[in-house]
Structures are given as structure tokens and as C-alpha cells.
Amino acid sequence: MKLLYIALCASLVVCSTSAAWAQYGLYGSPEMLRVPQQQNSVQNSAVQAGYPTVPAAVVQPQPAQTYRQPQPQTYHQPQPRYGNSPQPARAYRQPRPTQAYRHPQPQPQYGYPPQRQTTSAYQPYQPGAQYRYAGPSMRKPVRTAAVEQPTPVQPIPAPPAAPAGPSFNTAPQDTNMVNQMLAEQNGYGCDQGCGSCGPYRSTLDQFEQDACGTWDDGYRSPWFGSISALIMGRSDSRRLWTSYATGSEFNQLENTQFGMRWRWGGEVRFGRRFCCNCVPFALEATYWGTESFTGYRSTTNPNSPYTVSTPLRIGEVWFNNTSAMYWFDGAAEHRLWRRNEFHNVEVNVIREQLAWTCDSPWDIGWSAGVRYFRFQEALKFGSLAGGHTWGQSGGLYEAYLSDNIDNNLVGVQVGFDAAYNLANGLRLFISPKFGVYDNYINQTFRAYLGDGTVATTGTSGVPGTYPVHSSKNVLSFLTQIDVGVDWQFARNWGFRAGYRVVAATGMGLADDQFPQYIVDIPEIADIDHCSSLVLHGAFAGLTYNY
Asked: Which end of the chain is more exposed for a tag (fewer CB within 10 A), N or C?
């Protein structure tokens, strides 16, 4: 039993010893190979790899020269480099015939030596050509004429043909998308005309087509002129009460808000169209105005005692040391006169037809320019003293209060023209314009008798005398909207009709300049410009293109 125990312990010790030797690599490991020592291993490896051991210096080109014929000679006995064993001498070889020195190929400093050139200058793309990198990954790829083992390239299948449909561009197709887009935009010019299906061909008016291109006979008509008739009226002013029945002040009889008849006027336009890519531009000058608006109103008292008075305070106004109440209160008759004039001048640059869809029924254009608008108004309030007649004694028994005011608007404006083409040459349009203006207002307020006597302020102590002159600059806004139909019924003729609305704010109206106390000259001199003016009416006219 002891022997069995001793044998078991011995086997355990042997196994443990072998395991420990195996852990430290001292047991069962193969014998290390002895590598023979070589000299200049680094240099030899570089030579075998075909690369220089040291960076090659850049060789500068030298002028061409010719080698001289060397004399034959024999090398001297060289000194031994390694060890003491001498090497036998060898004879000098005869050099080859002399030839011209060629410039060496320039090499980058500390770069790779030149390799065998396998490529040439860049060539146009050829189907089946292959690409590869001629050097390190940082170099640009170059095209090789061929590869060692070319692989046949299968052609890319063409996409299925698109379904046949109408073509609006006859320009040749190009693989460059940008060129295609430019060809679509520039395919129609002033010299080529609009083409068979250019922008607006079926909806563009004939005179606009002619401004873009040429007719079959080569005739062009870029110039145009238009004349139109206007009939317009104006909005009512604010109420300025001037008359009541004497003895019954609550019985007001008359105010300045009385309507005036519509007046005829005219408009003249002329200009020239220019073309850019079949889109007409135009420089246009316009004038329009109306004959003078006039209004008249007479007021008497239909009841006893047949006299009228005014609610305006005129007791401090004097004519020939007599209060103006003698003429205006208990008067036989009151009268009102109004007169208006309108003048409009503008110059605009117009860009017509912005809807670039072929055969589109919609047209949108814009305009920009300057405008001068003048509005003149005169309002006169007259009274006849009781018991007298008009014109008696040279107008001695007639007294008048009047105000003349001018509004001069100068500014810039922008607008657009939107139209829907019903047929070739027939369209409905709306053309609004919006502008900002400097309004120079000047006025003159008078108080006088029919014979020319000028009123005074008497003993009221109010500074100033009649007439009262004043002026000021204010900011105004003006909007004009035209709505109508445009019909191009002949080659060079068109008809245009519609309705026009002109609205202006920041205007000085004559009614607003009459104060409650007529003697208040400083109040009269301070021009009231918080009113608005609206003109509206119809227009119709012809356009000729030449």
C-alpha cells in the first residue's frame, strides 16, 4: 500500500514539472533557427526592390555637350575594402561612340525615380477604356491605353423610349442638362421670332408678337400710340353748412356737399416696345385729364320773411367799416360755386407677359415709373344783401368768401397687369398701380365784395390780413385701378375699354379750409390735408402700332 502511495506521488510530481516547463517554454519548444548574418541588408533590399538607398537629388538640365574621347587606361590596384585579400585589376572598356547629351527628365526632389511611362496625354473617352492608378494613392488617376488582361465591357442598355407627345423645343438634344435648360430659355429671340409654339403664341396679341419678332413680310411695328375717351366724376367732399332759414338756426338749408356732373376727358399714350427672349418690354408716356368739374347751388328761404343766414361766424370781418353780417345774415340769397381740374402725367417702364407656359391663357406683367398728378379746386360762397339784386351798384351789395387750393403730387409708383386671354387677341385685364408721393399744397383764401373791396379784421386784434396765402409739403398716397377688355381686332389696331378708379389720400380740399370763425387767419393759414379724393369713370379707345 505504501509502494502504491509513493508511485502515485512520484507521478504527480513528474506531471507538474512537465507542465511548468511547458508554461515557461523550456519543454517541448523547437530549437531556434540561426539566421546567417548579412552585411548591408538594408541596402541590398533596396537594390532588389529597385529603389535608391538615398534620396535622389534633383537634376538640373544642362546645355547639350559632347563627350571627349577618353584615353584608354588601366585601373590601379585598388585597396582592399574588407579584409586583406587583394582583387585583380581589370582593363578599362572602350566607351561607345560619342552622342549628344540629352536633358534628363525632371524629377521631383526626394521622389521616386522615373518609372516606365505607360500613358500619354489625356484622350477623349472611348467605350471600354479602363482606368488605373499609376502610382501611390495620392496621385490623380490617369487613363491607360490598355490593360494587361482587358475585360470586355457590356454596353449599358438604353432606357425605354418615352411615349410620343407634343414637342415644344426643336433645339438638338444635349447630354448636358444645363445646356438643355439654356436652349429652352434662349430658343426664341428677337431675331428669330416667337417660333411655332413659343411663349404665348396662341394667346399673345398680334402687335406684341410683332414687337418680338417679324411678320412674314418682314414688317415690324414696335412703336405704338393710343387715344382714349374718358368720362369721370368725383366723390363728394365733407359737409360744410353755409345757410339756414333766418330766425330758425336749426333749419339748415344748404351745405357744400352737392354733386357735380360727370365730365368728359381724354387720355393719350405713346411708347416703344423692346423684345428680350420673346418678352416685350415697353417705355410708355401717358397723359390724361378731364374738362373742369363745375357745380352751382342757389339757396333762398321758401318761408316768410324770405331771408337766409349763415352759421359761419363772420361778425369780426369788416367791409368799409361795416360788419360782414350785413351781407351774410338776413340775406336775400346765398350761392355756391365749385370748380375742379385734374391733370395726370406719368412715364413707366412696362414688362409684359410673365406667364412662360406655352399656350397659357394667363398673362402677368409689371410696371414701374414716375407720376405727376395735379388737382385744383376752387370753392366760392357768395351772399346778396337783403332788398338788393345781383350786380346792383357794381356788386357793392355782394360779398364773397373763396378758397383756391392746388395739390401737386410727385412720386414713384409700381403696378402690375394681370390678364386672362379668352381668344387670340381678346383678353380681360386688371391693372392696379400704387404710388408714394410728395404733395406740395398751396392755397389762397379771400374775403371781398363784388366791387373788389377787400375785407379786414376790424378791431378784433387778430394778426394778418386778407387774402391769406400759405403752402406746405405733405405725404400722399395714390392708387389707380383699371379693369376692362383688350381686343386686338386687326394687324395694327386694338380696342381697349374699361372702368377706372383713382383714389388719393393726404389731399387738401377747399371745404376743409373754411374755419368756423372766418376771422381766424392763423387757422386758415394752417392747411388741413387729412381728406381723400376719389375719381372714377369709364374709358374706351384705340391703339395703333406702327
From this structure: N
